[in-house]
Amino acid sequence: MKIDQHHNSRSISILILLTGFLLFSSPAAFAQNSSKTISAVEFQNQLKNAGKAVILDVRTPEEFNTGHLDQAKNLNIYDATFQESISKMDKTQPVYVYCKGGGRSANAVKKMQELGFATVYELKGGIVAWEQQGLPLNNAEKPKTDLFTSTDFDKMLKANKNVLVDFYAEWCLPCKQMEPVLLKLKNQLKGKVAIERVNVDEAKSLSKSIKIEGLPVVAIYQNGVEIKRVTGFQSEQDLLNLIKELK
Fold first, then answer.
1. Is residue 99 flagged as an active site residue?
2. Catalytic-residue membership of 172
3. Total of domains in the chain
4. Residue 200 half-sphere exposure, CB side, CA atoms within 13 Å?
């Protein structure tokens, strides 16, 4: 009998704990939300059959006006009211989010997950990847002549046996964060490894031909041949580890 009473008391205690947890926990903690990063082609294919969904462009209004996806809604992630604006959206509808290169959209997805959005799809590589696939944009600007071409790139690679190339853009925050370290290594490794930077906005044809998607991208070349590339922010040690792969 004592055993049964002890068992019942233990069961009641567990039940009370669970009830309290359910009552006082944040609803977002129980939201069955999910997110997925998908390629430009898959992004477009899903949009064709998405039905009731939101296409969210988190770039600045100036960027949005240079070309955007059809029916996209523009909410600038840098705007102080961004989180308040997305919190008012219908969280049960699928949301397709993108930016220029993928960095800002990843931050937007994180915020939306915290707010309990059910389903969020992120465009891998952003508008850069979308354009490289030749996919349509509304109100797209007329392409400008590239300031840096494939011929320039080949000359750059042939000038040195070992080359590390940082593919960047002025609007890319991680790219700006890496710039001082790259300059430091450029000076330290002079004569051993050439460290160069290519602005993808001035080399769109080149970026498309060698499939630069997402930024920053760092690639190492030996005798004009690509050995390895990595995407995303790289610390000084990450860059040194990459350079070690050049024999």
1. no
2. yes
3. 2
4. 29
